[in-house]
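User: Okay, second chain of the day. Same drill as before: sequence in, structure tokens out.
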Amino acid sequence: MVQTPIQTLSEAQEWDLSDLYQGFDDPQLEDDLQELDRRAQAFRSHYRGKLADCSPSEVAIALQDLEAIHQKSGYLYAFPSLKFSADTRDSQAQQFEDKVMEALTQIENQLLFFELELQALNESQFAQLQDADALSNYCHYLQRIAEFRPHCLPEAVEQTRNQDVLTGREAFIKLRSVHLGEQDYDPVTIPEGKTVDSEAELSSLLFQGDAETRLNAYQSVRRVLKHHNSLYGYILNTVSQDRRIESQMRGYPSTLHQQLLIDEVSEPVFRAIMEGMKSRYDLFQRYYRLKGQALNRKIRICDTYAPWTTDPTPPIDYQTGVTTLLDALEQFDVNYARRAEEFFLNNWVDAKVRPGKRGGAFCAYFHGKHSYLLLSYTEDYSSLFTLAHEMGHGLHFDWIDRKQSYFNSNPPLVLAEVASTFNELLLLDRLLDQAGDDAALRQALITRQLEDQLSLLFRQSTISRLELDIHERAQQGSFDASFVNEAWMNLYGELCGDAVDLLEEHQYDWARIGHIFFKPFYCYQYTASTLVSLACYQKYLEVGPEFVPGYLELLASGSQWNQVEALRHFVDVDLEDETTIHNALLYVEGLVNQLEATL
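Assistant: Same drill. Structure tokens below.
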């Protein structure tokens, strides 16, 4: 792999996937698929029906073999899925992804017996495994298996379920992605004369200073969502009904309860987060009333990210953005920054804007290698903060990769979002230092961060409120798009109060939220991790460099610990203490107070 010097990054780069495979015609792809199938068959032949007679040392060897199979499966899935994300119009990538998914599902079905046989062990046998020194590295993994024991299904049913998902739930989820990627949007011309028509560029116009441009961009995207409202409603209903059926099959009270067990979050913590946010809607509304006063107009939903002044915020080109981010990380820890630099030098980042590219941003991690970052960099500060966010994920996984085996490498989702938000706070401090006496830029940066925090705390928890409505309705029977439209508008109306005017098009906005399709009740975890990140950052500001080692150990812990215990142990943050929520909201309120004092 050829490295790209930072100083030559004159424009947003595209990623290089050659350390996975050279292309779809790479014979190694087919060879690896066949070899993986052989290894899975050999594993099944050696262990199936015999696990109860294995010693703890033999179980440890089996787990290591299983980890190696899963690791290779990840590489095989990575290549076509990343290619497809980079260009959802690439039919070859789509077809190969389908082929690989089918092959990996067959392999997974061959391996299902292992956890099922572990779950079937009697209490005494299972306790012996949990207490064995040979399995000390897998303590939390075994504890998680014990927690899921009441909800497992017979092997044949699990296999059928895996196969059905490919042509059922996952197919509908992918249909939405493919369909959105094929859409054309009405072009919008900005006052400077440039015309844009991609979803990423249109969304970036919501940060522009011209009110008419923001409205036109907002409506262009939602016009497409309105046109296909019934389709996206049908897909969401189908996916939600499938999750309801699965929850019932496995003996969960609801989809929420199933997901909370997966997330390692107790229901009281979930409810405390939801109620804590609802109790402070006044913060959200107060901020947007202040913004309306500054803009001399009531804020519309398309104006929530508008700049506070009509003076345009200067663009920040890709090279400048990258070097600024690296400087911010270096102030925190030099080794942290140097590892981040590797992502750019090795082209593990795809930041270029182009038609057909998947919307949004993500970090895709593959144990034993590294992460790949995808975003669309549009030369504004929002894009730079997105880059910082995804780099936080990449660095988190890098620290995990140094310390953890495969089964300890997937942190619970609240913990998984801490590094990304923490990175944004580091970047903000660096940008404020650079802004110096530039009052307009300082205000733009502070208000942008406030708006980001308000979104993570209040918008994301509102999305989870929508999901509560959706999945409770799914328990009663099917629903259509009109139900989701009405629920979304009612919930957002409660959040906005009289501080923000909701446009008619906002009722269709839910279809843009990929997580409600991909993974239920994901978004509240953004809220939870923001609360935790703010707590971590406050401690870092208090104690300085002494905070760094514990923080990096927290990242490196992966899923080896229960996440609540890990937060307490490494950084002294207690997610179960309601004062964590209270103090984080006081921190945000303090920022609003500082902003109000400047007006």
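The chain has a mean pLDDT of 93.

User: Thanks, on to the next one.
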